Each structure stands twice: as structure tokens, then as C-alpha cells.
Amino acid sequence: RYAPLQGETASLVLPTNDTDSLQSIVYYAHGKRYDRSDAILQLLGDLGGIWKLVRVFKVVPAFLRNALYSWIANHRYRW
Prior knowledge:
two-stranded antiparallel ribbon
């Protein structure tokens, strides 16, 4: 399911002071909240099949994965 971060569903799940999330993806599953690169890896892994292989990238430190995530997010419209 999908819900905009500014919507009612997200306001029930996310902390009220979580303004950084409005610039990112947030994935809520299995009773946990994932954001940025963790959200992408968890979401793709939950799709199953060959997508489960992307979870191997969780061994890369989050600060590196999130830097790559931010770089891609900043350039995605140009591409």
C-alpha cells in the first residue's frame, strides 16, 4: 500500500517532528519503520524472488548507502 508522507496515514505512523522524512522514502513493514537506503533494500527484499539478493548490500555501512541514495535522489530528474 502507498500513502503520501503528508497524509493522515503517515501522520499516525511517523513521529510529528520527522521533517527529514518528507525528503525521502519511508517504508513501514513488519512493525518497523525504514527510511532512505534501508527502505529501498527492505522493500526490494520483501518483493521476493531475485530481489531478495539486494539485501546483501546491508553489509555496506548506512552512511555510505545513504550518501549514494541522496546522490541518486538529487540527480534523478536530470537522468
